[in-house]
Amino acid sequence: MASFGVGEIAFQLHNMGMSLLLLFYYQQVIGLSGTLTGAALMMSMVVDAITDPLIGGWSDRFKSRFGRRHPFILASSVPLAISFVLLFSPPESFGDTGNFIWLAVFSVLVKLSVTFYYVPHMALGAEMAQDYNQRSTLFAFNGLIGATTAATTHFLIYMFVFPTTETFDPGMLDPDGYPRFAWGSAIIITAALAFTVWGTRREIPYLRNTEADSRLSFGEIFSDMVAMFKNRNFFILFIATFLIGIHGGVQEVFQIYLVLHFWEFKTEEYGWLGPLMLTAFLLAFLITPSLTKRFDKKRTLVFATSIQVFIPSVMVGLRLLEVPWFPANDSDWILILFFATTYVQMMCNPVAGATIFSMFADIADEHELHSGKRREGAVYAARAFSSKALAGVGTMIGGVLLDVIQFPSNADAGSVSAEIVWRLGFIAGPAISMIALLGIGLFFYHNLNRSRHAEISRQLAERKSRHHMA
């Protein structure tokens, strides 16, 4: 379980760079417009739309003495590390056109490398844990590792990589910090993926084998994807997570702008959120299996996602409405309230993530019952596309909106007009939350609960028993 979870480190480091730093770096430091930055990153999402089902279908059908999933994970490590470093190292005086092309090319290469690892990695987890409740525990642990990585990286970024100085206030304007972050992440990514492959190698003999008549072709892969979208529960979860993902993507883009210009925190103050988040993630890991056992996965997901989405909007809304009793930005209480609400939000984040991954694994069983084929790769290819689309579409929308509100580049602390700051808060708070509300509503139509999954497992076991007897 630990070896599987370590693989999440690579995804989280890449995700921190792509969703948290990349647009700010190119828009604020490099000086590329938010729209061009968003358009370049949107290209990587188009590549995802094509490669996710291809890699998922390929890994479903791949045959080797090292299993179906392990070769893909190992092969992705070095290309991912190299392309990630180059993404944050554009040549100086390249111009808008050159920077746009550089960003587009290397963001595509990073996304392609992540697809080679992430889709097979998630499919491997679905194969390793075949029990309804065991999957919740496995993916909760995977979420804990990822969340811990995110929290630790958060602390290091804002405390040591981008500290506030006389020259750079906020510290995020320091151009030298971005290559340092990329190099450190690249080394850890390579080591994490190698450890995952090595640590889970003993599971290979016990994993499901590729069907004897299975072949890789574009037609077969397309048929797999069509079949998955015909599954009612899969379609509901895909659309719901996509809508919530767009909300999350825009919020991730705007978060650092809110912290530095809406709430007027220093980077070091924001950095202390990292250690606090660790306890939230640990608590989430401990309670996720119990929540899904007691309340079932759907109720757990609705509850956790609702808090995750609307808690941040409450604080922003109170500031926008200029509520008299709400603390001013120069009050110590505003930082305490920000940390408290973010703590609750971060505690719900891994709960929702682990639950949704576990629900997709259950859908793979349902699909096998109806089709007679194991297609974890196809399931998680579509899930990975939804997850990465939130970064692509959300980043694109966020970049365009920054240009719409005319947010200036290289903006020092306190230099942005009050009108632009108000628009920033309104978009990042109440406006974008309406999209997520639609996604949460769709969760209520999912009907693959514990009793239904138990019946599916029983029928699959009977089918397998008859096959062996024959």
Provide structural commentary:
The chain is mostly helical and 470 residues long. It has one domain: Growth Hormone, Chain: A. It has 14 helices and no strands. It has helices at 2-30, 34-61, 70-87, 95-128, 132-161, 177-199, 218-230, 232-262, 267-271, 273-320, 332-371, 376-404, 418-443, 450-469. α1 runs parallel beside α12 and α3 (70-87) packs antiparallel against α6. It is globular and about 75 Å long. The two termini are 35 Å apart. The relative contact order is 0.16. The model has no long low-confidence stretch (mean pLDDT 85).
List keywords for this structure.
470 residues, mainly alpha, Growth Hormone, Chain: A, 14 helices, 80% helix
Radius of gyration: 22 Å
What's the number of helices? 14
> What is the highest CATH level, the class?
Mainly Alpha
Shape: globular
Seen as an oligomer or otherwise, the chain set is single chain
Which second-level CATH architecture applies?
Up-down Bundle
SSE order, one letter for each helix or strand: HHHHHHHHHHHHHH
Percent of residues in beta strands: under 5%
- Unreliable parts: none
Q: Structural class of the helix and strand makeup?
A: mainly alpha
Number of strands: 0
CATH topology: Growth Hormone, Chain: A
Give a quick precis of the structure.
With 470 residues, the chain is an all-alpha fold. Helix content is 80%, strand content 0%.
Summarize the helices and strands and which ones pair or pack:
Layout: H1 2-30, H2 34-61, H3 70-87, H4 95-128, H5 132-161, H6 177-199, H7 218-230, H8 232-262, H9 267-271, H10 273-320, H11 332-371, H12 376-404, H13 418-443, H14 450-469
Helix pairs in contact: 1-4, 1-5, 1-6, 1-8, 1-12, 2-4, 2-7, 2-12, 3-4, 3-6, 4-12, 5-10, 5-11, 8-12, 8-13, 10-11, 10-13, 11-12, 11-14
